[in-house]
Amino acid sequence: MSTSVNAGGRLDRLPIGPFHRRIMLLIGIGMFFDGFDIYIAGTVLGVTLKSGFSTLPQNAAFISATFVGMMIGSFATGFLGDRYGRRFTYQFNLLLFGLASLAAAFSPNMIFLIVCRFLMGVGLGAENVVGYSTMTEFVPARTRGKWLGFTAVCVVTGLPAALLIASVVVPTFGWRAMFVLGGVGALIVWYLRKALPESPRWLEAVGRTEEAENLMQAIEKEAAQGRPLPPPEPTMPAPVSPALSTLFAAPLLSRMIVGAVCLITINTLLYGFVTWLPVFFIKQGLSVATSFGYSLLMALGAPVGSAIGALTADRWGRKPTIIGASMVAVILGIIYPMISDPVLLPAVGFALTVPIYVLVALLFGIYIPELFPTEVRLRASGLVNTLGRGATIVTPFLVVMLFEARGVAGVMAMMIGLLVVQIITVWALGIEPRHRSLEELRAEEAEGVPVRQVT
Questions:
Q1: According to the CATH classification, is domain 7-203+244-446 in 3.40.50.460?
Q2: Residue 421 has pLDDT above 90, yes or no
């Protein structure tokens, strides 16, 4: 039996079918619980504070522990995933998150809850990196943007879901029930994910060619459903050194810069603006109930924006969509602080939330995993995600300082500045992977050939 499997060419020529939908379903549900749990803090901490279970400094420590854990999880999963495989990593992080979430539900005090939250953060940060990267390696190039974008939709749907579920569950069953839901859901998905295969691209890249060939034959049999498959594109061997130093030399250094700038920007937008909306509304004189209603309305922009990103990435291309959404966010960000009308305020806010979540889908879900070759994909994605998560540690302090000095306009000025830097960086250094196989991108970068643009 030949061991020259050409996994990439064979995967890219498969028709979309039950195999891809099963991969999407099990990874997507796991990513949903990732998003659901990220936003649990806003639904839980107010109750723990009011009941005396926590203090304000402890609430701050809870949030900080989440982001520190996510940063460590993003960093560690890159090395684990490239060394031990995608399957091991996405199962380990989901198990860690699920068990820690259940333990959090039985916390005897806030210190124990903070420790559990740190462990949950490690799992959450890892899931974000390995989930998108795994989908990238399975989905055909011609529809990769759409499928990865809809994976991002699964994540951001956790925002309105957490708000809606908490409004029913917390008053009746208390805040602990939210952690039970997250933990039980994650463990169910962990069990179901045992049926997911390893990435054939990764198996081939690390020299486990016989396993890759056996797996490819099984995948092809399922995908073909008794019909002949089209011939695969010829293999393009272009091995990339797995050494960490590869990421900090041409041509990957420019891609690391693009990834870092984009993830710092989008994390700051999410955790410096979107999650602070209830506070902004209350400070602007709205009641708590009205603030919650406005926030929920704007949160609905999350799945809408991500769906738009999923549907346009393959049609318009990654770079045009990222740059276009960034420009729309800049324009609306200039207008937003000028609005005081109670009807226009949530409407413009919703409109602003949509391009932000278009960027969430494009950057987290689609573009960043595509930038890097299989041999170092998780390490590279993990490192730039670490920088992005690191930004969330300092963002709250910057937001408070700017809000106290200049109000919402000061916060938006920081966001607009980052968006402008992102536009310039993507335009100058970014590549366009639309309809391009991962192996084609890797071959050209290994040979030092500029990656051609696809029109």
A1: no
A2: yes
